[in-house]
Write a structure and sequence with these properties.
Layout lengths: L7 H6 E3 L5 E3 L13 H6 L4 E2 L5 H7 L4
């Protein structure tokens, strides 16, 4: 059986946690930050978790994570 390829786009965006979930960076934090309030930018800082309903699809994209 050949090795499975990981989806490289997903590999850059998601990291597996020890409990089996996935974390990802918040969107809307890359550019055009001048018009966004400090509060909004601060709340976008921490990584957030992928919803449990989306985890099976990510497992398929990242078989070795």
């Amino acid at each position: 059986m050949p090795k499975l390829k990981s989806n490289s786009g997903a590999a850059k965006r998601f990291k597996r946690t020890a409990s089996g979930g996935f974390k990802h960076k918040q969107s809307f934090r890359n550019h055009i930050l001048t018009k966004k309030s400090s509060k909004r930018k601060r709340q976008l800082r921490p990584d957030s978790m992928v919803d449990k309903r989306d985890v099976p699809g990510l497992v398929r994209l990242l078989p070795y994570s």
